[in-house]
Amino acid sequence: MIATGNTSVLGAGGRALEHLPPDPQIVGLYITACASGAATANRQPAAVSSIERRLSALSWHYLQLGERLDRGDRHIATVLDGIRHTHGRPPVQKEAVLPEDLIAMLGTLDRGTLRGLRDRAMLLMGFAGGLRRSEIVGLDVGPKQTEDSSGWVEILERGMVLTLRGKNGWREVEIGRGSSDGTCPVVALETWLKLGRIAHGPLFRRVTGQGKTVGSERLR
Fold this sequence. Notes:
By secondary structure, the protein is of the alpha+beta class. Helix content is about 40%, strand content about 20%.
């Protein structure tokens, strides 16, 4: 398991390994473990799309730490190609979003509006955590707050922990704070919660009243 909020990762056999600078060989071992189920909470093989989301999240995490993960390195690219060939269906999904793509998307959002702040928090959280849209919009501010919740968030000093309910039970996703407030998912979420005056219930909501009011309804 590679935990972005920690200082080490677990490699083959559960050995603790330093995660800086990023080692493509270790990342290759990690995605191999994901494909086999050894690195997933339910011990079920992860889908190719899930593995690609995790790779994107790792790339973003290392970028925030001033490092670069070379996804084209043979230890990653060859393994990923093998996983696609063995486990993948005919490619129908779009290519995975890269860190530079995310930065371009963030640049289109108006940080002076509630809608822009909300969408910024959603993009950064989703990318950093390798989350699906349904997982993002299903989050609450805290546990057991709404009937249709699929999880909640806990903001900590060094980052945040998302508790998510899936088909095979609950799992936790750790997201560390970024080196820059401008691209930090935790700062983006804290800003949205503060200016949106959200303290309970759905985390991400509809913005109404010409973009000036945060409603009570969850985004779908």
